[in-house]
Amino acid sequence: MGVSGSGKSTVAGMLSAALGWELVEGDDLHPAANIAKMADGDPLTDSDRWPWLARIAQWMEVQVRTGRSGIVTCSALKRSYRDVLRSSVPERTGSIATFIHLVGTREQLHQRLITRLDHFMPAGLLDSQLRTLEDPTPDEQVVEIGIDAPPDQIARAALAALRLRGRLRLDLDEDRFSVQL
Q1: pLDDT tens track for 112-127
Q2: pTM, full prediction
């Protein structure tokens, strides 16, 4: 999770490759109208986001129901959005939704957005996303990781945090963890 430009897709791709888990880009589940709206520089509203979040939650529910772990990229800016996603993974299944929140300064995020060439989200929407962002609370399953380090180090930090929280029981050699981009 995190605002646009935080590195969600890059880090998620590395985690997916390392863990062998299916990855879905949340942006790919946006209705065309949402993408057009953002591309025009108009921020999404809650009513724009709810159908999108429902599609992500549905994907997560299928993963749990079929016994597969997965990774999904999603801004998940508000607690209510995270609650919808969390509710798609009932605790009785033994699974749990854990959010990795990639955190950076406005300046870091803006710099990334203005140098990104292949995305519909314009840098002008960053402030809107930052205003919408509700910082996770201690009772949520959220791991916050700064974006200062290179992506492979961020991915290693995410793996380590998941292990510490007991969410990951894989024996990966973090010293050898790398993905060529």
Answers
A1: 888 866 656 667 788 9
A2: 0.84
